């Protein structure tokens, strides 16, 4: 029995050492992507909407289900390694209203764990201890990516080839805004102010004719923006009309109420390539309070 316990402890110790060494190796080898383009950071709505091979003035660092905590530390890492003058952040009802899942489980979150400081690690642990511990364990496999390519992906465009799903977004009668999301959104705002970075919020195209759009919590979302961030440029392009510009059926440009389809992503990227950021900031889409 004693020998069994000894062997068990020996095995556990060996696994722990291997895990620690793999994490140290990962942190040592990790290199931040370099770009001179305008970074766009956000969740899957950005991932499906901005093809940087077409919209060449932007770099898309969107990741599925990304919480503002990861956006904050990714942006901070970019600022520490290169010059950033302007940053675009995805800002929509689905980022804020009743959004607990983004903080608990973000696609590829283990890649960015080493970027988080002590406060961030604590917040992630208490949000979901099981997923937090599991993510550190999974981090070991990222070393294989580093052996092939020493730059870890910060996200990017992925064509959305799903057929339209009208039941993707369920109406929310009772609403609240999770404290973790607002906490790190505030940190993003503060960081950009301290670093003299022009921060721009962006609400990407939504399928406005969907029967659920009135219940997409847009009213509560806009009230939150005007109460807390009305001094920040906010390009709300959620009512962008694809069929008016390119023809066809509007629904074909979307995979659901919140995400563009492959066709929509390509078309919207063309629009961004034709329209400068300064033009967008001066357009009707900018909801910033005029002084």
Describe the structure.
- The protein is an alpha/beta fold.
- It has one domain: SGNH hydrolase (Rossmann fold, 3-Layer(aba) Sandwich).
- The chain has helices spanning 2-29, 44-47, 68-81, 93-96, 101-104, 118-127, 129-138, 142-148, 179-194, 218-228, 242-246, 262-274, 277-282, and strands at residues 38-41, 58-60, 86-90, 198-203, 233-236.
- Strands 2-1-3-4-5 form a five-stranded parallel beta sheet.
- It is globular.
- The chain starts with a helix and ends in a 9-residue tail after the last helix.
Overview features:
45% helix, 291 residues, single chain, alpha/beta, Rossmann fold, 13 helices
Question: Short summary of the structure?
Answer:
It contains 13 helices and 5 strands.
List the helices and strands and how they pair.
Elements: H1 2-29, E1 38-41, H2 44-47, E2 58-60, H3 68-81, E3 86-90, H4 93-96, H5 101-104, H6 118-127, H7 129-138, H8 142-148, H9 179-194, E4 198-203, H10 218-228, E5 233-236, H11 242-246, H12 262-274, H13 277-282
Parallel strand pairs: 1-2, 1-3, 3-4, 4-5
Annotation, overall tally of beta strands: 5
Summing up helix and strand content along with how strands pair, one would put the structural category as alpha/beta
Strand content: 5-15%
- For the record, the count of structural domains works out to 1
How far is it from the N-terminal to the C-terminal residue, by CA? Answer: 77 Å
The sequence of SSEs as H and E is: HEHEHEHHHHHHEHEHHH
How many whole angstroms does the radius of gyration measure?
A: 21 Å
Per CATH, the class reads: Alpha Beta
Q: Could you describe the largest sheet, including whether it forms a barrel?
A: 5 strands, parallel
Task: Kindly report the spatial arrangement of strands forming the biggest sheet.
Answer: 2-1-3-4-5
Please, how many helices?
Answer: 13
Shape from CA axes? globular
Which CATH architecture would you pick?
A: 3-Layer(aba) Sandwich
The CATH superfamily is SGNH hydrolase
